[in-house]
Amino acid sequence: MKNREDTMHIRLINPNTTASMTAKIGVAGARVAAAGTQVSATNPDAGPVSIESHFDEAVSALGVLDEIRRGEREGADGGERVDAYVIACFGDPGLLAARELTTAPVIGIAEAAFHLATLISTRFSVVTTLGRTCIIAEHLLQNYGFAHHCRKVRAAEIPVLDLEDDGACALGRIIDECRRAKTEDGIGAIVLGCGGMADLTDEIREAVGLPIVEGVTAAVKLAESLVSLRLGTSKHGDLAFPRAKTFTGRFDYLGS
Ligand code: 2AL
């Protein structure tokens, strides 16, 4: 058996179908990974090109589950086994369902960033993309029990795909919003609220002068910790593999 302390494989799943964002997420994850950690990045074949509504998120969750199933199949077919998965969209779409499909750890970038932010500050704010997505982060903060650590969820009013467009001035608008958070919110740290911001962390930190917690990189380091501690998703209780059953119609491929 492979010695997991020396070598491991973390699969980053970008839940949207924009390949340039997937590549960027892969580079950001690989940059912080330990020597001996292999990082691969994938996205579903089908689904929204960006996730910025409840509808986008619901559709993208199915793609995430397909990607987990694909990762598990690769390992079972003699390919490179996946030791941990990261769901690299700030709504953590499909997180609990994904955990049911594997014994490997599955970490969402929002939950990873919230956890790390509480370790380095007593209060943080989130800076995300469009205002309409703030409620998604607020629901996660409540569900995960982090609401009282977060002062405010702010939006830079940037459509997600503007993060892929050098001409869209996204970085400047995110920095402006982070500076407002620093002066107005009474916080010690900022959490970046989109996987597409993974390459901007250093510039934002320099410009704002606060610790900036970015979810993709936070999740990679948490995944490494869990794998090296041999902690995988519990199969006792609700995260056990789903009961075998028939799925009808276009979901028949999910049945057994
Ligand atoms: C995201 C994200 O992380 N990726 C995506 O497509 N949408 N979340 C967000 N709040 O914009």
UniProtKB/TrEMBL annotation:
The organism's place on the tree of life at top rank: Bacteria
Cross-referenced InterPro entries: Asp/Glu/hydantoin_racemase, Hydantoin_racemase-like, Iso_Racemase_Enz_sf
Pfam families noted in UniProt: Asp_Glu_race
Family: Belongs to the HyuE racemase family.
Name of the molecule in the record: Aspartate/glutamate racemase family protein
Biological source species: Thauera mechernichensis
